[in-house]
Design a protein that fits this description.
The complex is a heteropentamer of chains A (about 725), B (about 100), C (about 210), D (about 375) and E (about 170).
Chain A: H1 2-5, H2 11-37, H3 46-67, E1 73-83, E2 89-98, H4 100-123, H5 130-149, H6 153-171, H7 178-209, H8 214-222, E3 225-227, E4 230-233, E5 243-246, H9 247-264, H10 273-276, H11 282-290, H12 293-303, H13 310-332, H14 337-357, H15 361-396, H16 412-415, H17 417-431, H18 437-456, H19 466-490, H20 513-525, H21 542-547, H22 549-552, H23 563-573, H24 576-605, H25 618-624, H26 629-680, H27 684-703, H28 708-728
Antiparallel strand pairs in A: 1-2, 3-4, 4-5
Chain D: H1 2-29, H2 45-55, H3 66-83, E1 88-90, E2 93-94, H4 101-122, H5 126-157, H6 162-168, H7 206-209, H8 213-227, H9 239-242, H10 252-277, H11 293-296, H12 304-329, H13 337-366
Antiparallel strand pairs in D: 1-2
Helix pairs in contact in D: 1-10, 1-12, 2-10, 3-4, 3-10, 4-5, 5-8, 5-13, 8-10, 8-13, 10-12
Chain E: H1 3-24, H2 28-48, H3 52-76, H4 92-112, H5 123-130, H6 135-143, H7 147-168
Helix pairs in contact in E: 1-2, 2-3
The chains are: A mainly alpha (about 725), B mainly alpha (about 100), C alpha+beta (about 210), D mainly alpha (about 375), E mainly alpha (about 170).
Catalytic activity (chain D): a quinone + NADH + 5 H(+)(in) = a quinol + NAD(+) + 4 H(+)(out)
GO molecular function (chain D): NADH dehydrogenase activity; oxidoreductase activity, acting on NAD(P)H, quinone or similar compound as acceptor; quinone binding
Pfam family, one (chain D): NADHdh
Chain lengths: ~725, ~100, ~210, ~375, ~170
């Protein structure tokens, strides 16, 4: 096994792998030190965390330039061995896999993490357990990097769980608040639900292929031959014979892995934890929603892309499209500055997952990258705004107003101009306006979706067009809610605090430089130029080039077979789709913004910026409550169980008891009847009959005495009857 | 010949099993009923180990007897928690009295 | 409560462990100083205050702190100097001194300070189980024969032994002295009676004359 | 058989000495002299105490459950004594070389709990019941960190046999059947490439073979204090609240049995700590070049020198631990129940879980 | 009669006797101690059957765990000062009939079944000689052939732990 898994490595590759490991452990070391000794260090050790992450970032950059478009490094080490009794020994390997995708993720994760930590220095200043916060961030970054670097599913799963755990720590960081504790718990539990599926997917794959190694798995799967309903795989390592696997099981394995993504990337129907996760500190939201936790699901899909059959991909596409639409719809009705962004994240993740499902693998990853920057930027902007609101609320000793409600804000364009100008590019990128990064990636996904639908519906089944329609609908909604978000916060005039100075750090600066610099960097990175020299052509983007499926999967699309090349060809032929998508998406975005402006004007005109009431009209209430999904779970999962047990008890009491009681009653009536007949007709033999009937009635009552031990006796009588049967025959 | 024949062990198991059943049937105290259940588990375990002694190639018998113990531990923990809850509610653990209390 | 404690003390891991170790160190120091012993010296000894370390216990019956010369513990009566005046018995607040005196027939001697002794002490018992060590008896003693000594260690297994007998007369001697005195009294009474009778006779004689 | 008798006599002697040392050390720490009268420096005090207790009338309270009351001390004493059976005293002397020694020990210690419950309930006294309940709650809880600490050692040593674990911790390792080709590296780190198989001494003790085991040792030691109901975890016997806990009604030879069981328990846990963590009967002196300190102070296994050296080192370390137990008792005040449980469940158990994981990884990757 | 066989009969008799005592006594606590003796005798029989790991697990789980739990349950569910911990018997006759019928059936089945076992087998005698204890074999089986039941058992334990903890917590809402 080792001979197969570890081809000859050049010293350079070995050293690259070691550098990668250093990147991995740096945040862990910093985090561990902070958790243990943070209180003793100067400034509670935030410099240590930032320095470690910064170092990790620069190492990642080095790795990026060494690996990107040049080579793929796969280094393995023996991990552990299991003896299987009398047969051979099973070895497990672990290792580092660096390819274009991995180094890209490395850079993004460490970069966003670095910016978020710098931002947090001011944002979390004076916090009790300041050092714990940075420690948790370090562990979180470590876990995410582990997911990125793992070359096998088992290790990946371990880091996957670590991410879940550290996100639990971060979301519940303010554990004095009940809501934060509940949110952390909820996120944790919903992730577990997905992870069970993930685990079963891993087990299925292991059962068939006897390896966790992603590369070996990929090669094994790529060599499979489609035989109608089955796949024939040639003999793989450690296996004597070729194996035949049914399509259904492979689909199930793929869906199992997708379950993990559903939990972590907040896909329908497990997305409800994400809005609640806003209870965590805002920089944490920024980190979780931009580059790390939720992106992990998409990353996983990309890594495991070859393992998905065509049917599995279809499910993924449907779930993704549905999530995109539902998230966007919910976002339209929210008024919490962070909740809107949270639902927007759900929606955008839906895009990415849908992109994976429709085979737009590279477009999805491009969107992952661009989304990481602009969403981080938006959250950090929101953080500045909340910080300012808190500042003012503190000055006024105002503890009743909701400082996160956008209806309480307004006019920040003048008060916090720098923030406003940093906010605009990011928001525009999210909406998908041309010249901004979001346009590129969203356009790519939309084109892919359209192309997929077109290709699939060649047999006349137009239902496939539902997916692109969902996607385009989401574009419109995105424009609408982002416009609202922007207008409410930055336009008009401040609703709550009339003195703008109170919202600023001091007369000259609107906020501390450490808050503004990360935001500024991210805002600049939301421009399209960084991703493609031609801001209207995503195909030329260097990211797209680097992560295209031909490169990542080595021309082996895996179980989905010829789907990807076929779609590519189809898109090539129907070249109008690309152009139409671009125009349509811009149009929809603009219309969305216009509608948002109308809605804002209407609200201002109605003076209806009341912060107390929740929306009352039917649909917006539905959207505000997130389609009552939480209530749905309460009703569908929890209550039915309660009702089921209640029903069982009622069944026992009302049906079984009742029927036996009735039986007994009938017996008594019968006995009485016979008694009457006996008394009025003949005695003698009839008396005997009466006795018999009486005894039968008594037996019926006796068996039905409600004592569990008697029931036990009667059930044992059944066993005795069985003995008698055996004795008799 | 340090070998115990199979039949006596199985008969011992059968006796313990029946005593366990007797305890479950005849006792009024919920905890004694629980003890009877433990006795039944043990009788089953004895059979498993005895069979394992005579067919040890895969150790199924011993492995499964360990599983039986695990289940028994889980079972008794939950059962005792329930009994204590019942006690705190009805102030008795007498099965017949509990039945009368619930039989409204 | 919890907040109060955590605000007052540094509850971090290292300070707690440090405090625990400090305690262990303290007890260990005491343990190792156990090879030193406190000397049974009196407070006037210059060494008395220079022994802050080591065991403080004295193994009593074998060693003890010295008692000062003026220690006021067990009573002692120097019976040769005692004039059996009974003052001590009268002043005693707890009535622990029991004295029975016998008048002597003649002067029986002189005490060391020159007082004449005229009484025999038939019984001179001090019940030290009752004594409260107030010292009043010693202050009233005219001949300074009753004193307090520095003996403080005189436990007994029988409480009767706590009664100290100081008389130098055995009961037989006391009986003899008593008889002697009664005899003398009888003689004196007889002599007086004879004298009276003679006087009466003389008077009667004169009257007769 | 001889080993068994020797062990029992030896260990009972050790128990008696410990009871005496307890009083003497307490006195010294408090600047007193302690017992002095019976024998020179009072060394016969414990013997006399036992003799006195044996002479006393056997009082069983009339309201007590007589059978339970009478049986409880015997059950406790038997349980603790049974634990001694698997303790290796020297390289060739062990009462019973059970292959599952460690596991057996953990199981046997839990038998002790039954005796406690019998004593507490049988006394028909509310202090006794309260004391027994507290004691059982405490012992059962602390079995978890202690068991995990033992588990981490077992993971490192890959054996449940106490004698095998002992052999692994010294220069005699390769003489044990099955360990002929094993190699000890310093700190268990193969990467350091310092072969200390024949250096022996302290370098092959478990706390050095896997340095994290030192933390496990500390936790095991503290947990064992709780399992023996020793101060500062003596809330089951808290004089100021429960008079004397579960043995408040006992007197005469039954009290003596309880007393001996308690002190035997102390000796037993100290022996286990020494065997598992502190090199068992191995010498602490390493071979340095041609100065073969370890070889000189080990003797020949099986011969008289081997017996004497082995017993000496084992008992020396045990006595040191016993002294520490006494020392701790006379230093710290008693904990509250909630503090006790907090320490067990929220501090020790998580730390030990991490350490067990570490031990596993260490074994996988390092050795 | 080899020594092992004699020991087996002694412990078997002890197990039956103490189980019968458990049935006969009215005192719940005595019943628990009767069960204790049964469990200990069974542990001894396990050792005689070359199942030392199972025997010690029996000690640990049943004696150290389940029985302590039961004793705790008895003590917590009876007032210390009140009546003695008594338990009456019901269904004596019917229960006895059923149990003896089942025993008769079982005994008949055991005695009449054809076990297809090589009498005086050599495998069983050879196996303990190879390995000093059954624990190595059990350990290997547990993480290979029986890995799934092992994991499921751990899940069940966890669920039971959570369930028991949840059930026994005070219900604050009522």
């Amino acid at each position: 096994m080792n001979q197969v898994a570890a081809p000859l490595l050049t010293p350079e590759q070995n050293s690259l792998a070691l550098w990668a490991l250093l990147v991995l452990v740096l945040p862990l070391i910093a985090g561990g030190l902070l958790l243990l000794f943070g209180k003793k260090l100067t400034r509670q050790g935030d410099w240590l965390a930032i320095a470690a992450t910064g170092l990790a970032f620069f190492l990642s950059l080095y790795l990026f330039f060494q690996v990107w478009e040049k080579q793929a490094v796969h280094v393995t080490w023996p991990w552990f061995q299991l003896a299987t009794g009398n047969t051979s020994i099973i070895s497990f390997t672990t290792g580092v896999y660096l390819d274009n995708l991995a180094v890209l993720m490395l850079v993004i994760v460490t970069f966003i993490s670095l910016l978020v930590q710098v931002f947090s220095v001011i944002y979390m200043h004076g916090e009790w357990r300041y050092h714990h916060y940075f420690g948790y961030l370090g562990i979180f970054t470590f876990s995410m990097l582990g997911i990125v670097l793992s070359d096998n599913l088992l290790l990946l799963f371990i880091f996957w769980e670590l991410v879940g755990f550290s996100s639990y720590l971060l979301i519940g960081f303010w554990y004095e608040k009940d809501a934060a504790v509940l949110a952390g718990k909820k996120a944790f539990l919903f992730n577990r639900v997905g992870d069970i599926g993930f685990l079963f997917g891993i087990f299925l794959l292991y059962t068939y292929f006897h390896t966790f190694d992603l590369i070996l798995l990929k090669n094994a799967i790529a060599s499979g031959v489609n035989q109608g309903n089955n796949f024939l795989f040639p003999a793989i390592t450690g296996q004597a014979d070729a194996i035949t696997l049914s399509y259904t099981w492979l689909t199930l394995a793929g869906l199992g892995i997708f379950c993990g993504c559903v939990g972590k990337s907040a896909q329908f129907p497990l997305q409800v934890w994400l809005p609640d996760a806003m209870e965590g500190p805002t920089p944490v939201s920024s980190l979780i929603h931009a580059a790390t936790m939720v992106a992990a699901g998409v990353y996983l899909l990309s890594r495991c892309f070859p393992f998905f059959t065509e049917d599995a991909l279809l499910v993924i596409a449907i779930i993704g499209g549905l999530t995109a639409l539902l998230g966007a719809l919910a976002a339209t009705a929210q008024y919490d500055i962070k909740k809107i962004l949270a639902f927007s994240t759900i929606s955008q993740l839906g895009y990415m997952v849908m992109g994976m499902g429709v085979g737009a693998h590279d477009a999805s990853l491009l969107h992952l990258v661009t989304h990481a920057f602009f969403k981080a930027s938006l959250f950090l902007n929101a953080g500045i705004v909340i910080h300012a609101m808190h500042h003012a609320a503190h000055e006024f000793s105002d503890e009743h107003s909701d400082v996160q409600d956008i209806r309480n804000m307004g006019g920040f364009r003048k008060i916090l101009p720098f923030t406003f100008y940093a906010y605009i590019p990011a928001a525009a990128a999210l909406v998908g306006l041309p010249l901004f990064s979001g346009f590129l990636s969203k356009d790519a996904i939309l084109t892919g979706a359209w192309g997929w639908a077109g290709f699939k519906s060649q047999n006349g089944n137009l239902l496939y067009y539902v997916i692109p329609v969902f996607a385009f609908g989401s574009v419109l909604l995105t424009g609408f809610y982002m416009a609202k978000h922007c207008f409410y916060i930055f336009f008009g005039e401040s609703k709550l605090y009339k003195e703008p100075e109170l919202l600023r750090e001091n007369k000259t600066a609107e906020a501390s430089g450490l808050l503004l610099v990360p935001v500024a960097i991210l805002a600049v990175l939301s421009l399209a130029f960084f991703f493609s020299l031609n801001p209207f052509n995503y195909a030329g983007s260097w990211v797209m080039q680097g992560v295209s499926w031909q490169k990542l999967l080595m021309e082996q699309p895996g179980l989905s077979g010829g789907l990807l090349p076929a779609i590519t060809t189809y898109l090539h032929e129907a070249s109008y789709i690309s152009l139409a998508t671009a125009i349509l998406s811009i149009l929809l975005a603009v219309v969305g913004i216009w509608l948002g402006w109308l809605s804002y004007k209407k609200a201002v005109a109605a003076g209806g910026l009341s912060t107390i009431t929740a929306p009352t009209s039917g649909f917006s209430r539905l959207a505000y409550r997130h389609f009552y999904l939480d209530a749905f779970y309460e009703k569908v999962i929890i209550n039915p169980f309660m009702r089921l047990s209640g029903g069982a008890a009622a069944f026992d009491k009302n049906f079984i008891d009742y029927s036996l009681n009735t039986f007994a009653k009938i017996m008594v009536v019968l006995a009485k009847l016979i008694g009457w007949v006996d008394r009025w007709l003949v005695d003698g033999t009839v008396h005997l009959l009466v006795k018999v009937a009486g005894v039968t009635g008594k037996l019926g009552r006796f068996m039905q005495n409600g004592k569990v031990q008697s029931y036990y006796i009667f059930s044992l009588l059944g066993l005795i009857l069985l003995f008698l049967y055996i004795l008799a025959f | 010949m340090n070998n115990i024949p199979l039949i006596p062990v199985l008969l011992l198991g059968a006796v313990l099993f029946c005593l366990g059943i007797l305890a479950v049937i005849t006792k009024r105290h919920a905890i004694v009923v629980l003890m009877g259940i433990e006795l039944i588990f043990n009788a089953a375990n004895l059979n498993l180990v005895a069979f394992n002694r005579h067919q040890p190639d895969l150790m199924q018998g011993q492995v499964f007897s360990v599983f039986v113990m695990v289940i028994a531990a889980a079972e008794s923990a939950v059962a005792l928690a329930i009994i204590l809850k019942v006690y705190s509610y009805f102030k008795t653990v007498n099965l017949d009295q509990i039945r009368h209390e619930t039989d409204v | 409560m919890k907040e109060y404690i955590s605000s007052r003390y540094n509850n971090s891991f290292f300070s707690v462990v440090g405090a625990l170790l400090k305690g262990m160190q303290l007890t260990l120091q005491h343990f190792f100083r156990a090879n030193k012993r406190r000397e049974p010296t009196y407070v006037s000894d210059p060494n008395y205050f220079k022994q802050p370390e080591g065991l403080v216990t004295l193994t009593y019956p074998y060693e003890s702190l010295p008692v000062p010369e003026v220690g006021r513990y067990r009573l002692h009566n120097e019976i040769d100097d005692c004039i059996v005046c009974d003052l001590c018995a009268k002043i005693c607040p707890v009535n622990c001194i029991e004295i029975e005196s016998i008048k002597a027939t003649e002067d029986i001697g002189i005490t060391s300070d020159g007082t004449k002794k005229r009484l025999h002490a038939a019984v001179f018992n001090i019940d030290l189980a009752k004594c409260c060590y107030c010292g009043l008896c010693t202050t009233v003693c005219p001949t300074d024969c009753l004193t307090m000594t520095k003996v403080y260690d005189f436990p007994e297994t029988d409480i009767k032994n706590m009664i100290y007998h100081f008389t130098d007369l055995s009961p037989e001697q006391a009986q003899e002295k008593r008889q002697k005195y009664e005899q003398q009294q009888a003689e004196i009474t007889e002599a007086k009676a004879a004298a009276l009778r003679a006087k009466q006779e003389a008077t009667r004689d004169k009257g007769n004359i | 058989m001889l080993a068994l008798i020797l062990c029992i006599v030896f260990l009972l002697l050790l128990v008696i000495v410990t009871a005496y040392a307890e009083r003497k050390v307490a006195a010294f720490i408090q600047d007193r002299v302690g017992p002095t009268e019976t024998g020179p420096h009072g060394i016969l005090q414990s013997v006399m105490d036992v003799v006195k207790l044996l002479q006393k009338e056997d009082i069983i309270p009339s309201a007590a459950d007589k059978r339970l009351f009478a049986l409880a001390p015997i059950v406790m004493f038997a349980a603790v004594l049974a634990g001694f059976a698997v303790i290796p005293i020297t390289p060739s002397a062990i009462a019973s070389g059970a292959y599952l020694g460690v596991f057996y020990l953990l199981a046997i210690i839990s038998l002790d709990v039954i005796g406690l419950l019998m004593a507490g309930w049988g006394s028909n006294n509310k202090y006794a019941v309260l004391g027994a309940m507290r004691s059982v709650g405490q012992i059962v809880s602390y079995e978890i960190p202690a068991g995990l600490a033992v588990l981490s050692v077992v993971m490192i040593c890959q054996s449940l046999d106490l004698q095998e674990i002992s052999f692994q911790q010294g220069i005699l390792m390769n003489q044990f059947a099955g360990l002929e080709n094993e190699v000890n590296y310093l700190f268990g780190l193969k990467a350091l490439d310092l072969d200390v198989t024949h250096v022996g001494g302290i370098t092959t003790w478990n706390i050095v073979r896997m340095p994290f085991l030192f933390i496990a040792f500390i936790i095991y030691f503290i947990s064992s204090l709780a399992e023996c109901n020793r101060a500062p975890f003596d809330i089951p016997e808290a004089e100021s609240e429960l008079v004397a806990g579960f043995h408040v009604e006992y007197s005469g030879f039954r009290f003596a049995a309880l007393f001996l069981a308690e002190y035997s328990m102390m000796v037993l846990v100290s022996l286990v700590a020494v065997v598992l963590f502190l090199g068992s009967w191995n010498t602490p002196l390493p071979n340095i070049g041609s100065v073969q300190l370890a070889t000189w102070t080990t003797g020949t296994p099986g011969a008289l020198t081997g017996h004497l050296w082995g017993a000496f080192w084992l008992l020396a370390k045990t006595v040191l631990l016993l002294y520490t137990q006494i020392w701790i008792r006379w230093t710290y005040p008693r904990l509250r129940v909630d503090q006790l449980m907090h320490l067990c469940w929220k501090v020790f158990t998580p730390i030990m879980l991490v350490l067990v994981l570490l031990a596993g990884l260490w074994r996988l990757w390092m050795i | 009669m080899s020594l092992v066989l004699i020991f087996f009969y002694v412990f078997g008799f002890l197990a039956i006797a103490s189980a019968a005592f458990m049935l006969a006594t009215k005192n719940v606590l005595y019943a628990a101690f009767g069960l204790l003796v049964t469990l200990l005798s069974l542990a001894a029989i396990f050792i005689l059957l070359f199942a030392d790991f199972v025997a010690i697990t029996q000690l640990m789980v049943y004696v150290g765990g389940v029985l302590v739990l039961i004793l705790f349950g008895v003590m917590l569910s009876n007032q210390v000062q009140g009546r003695a911990v008594q338990s009456e018997s019901v269904n004596g006759i019917s229960g006895g009939l059923v149990a003896s019928a089942i025993f008769g059936g079982l005994a008949y089945l055991i005695l009449s079944a054809d076990y297809l076992l090589p009498e005086g087998i050599t495998v069983a005698d050879a196996a303990p000689a190879n390995t000093k204890s059954s624990i190595i074999a059990i350990g290997i089986r547990l993480i290979t052939n029986f890995a799934l039941p092992f994991e499921v058992a751990s899940l069940i334990l966890l669920i039971a732990l959570m369930g028991a903890a949840y059930i026994s917590t005070e219900d604050k809402h009522e």
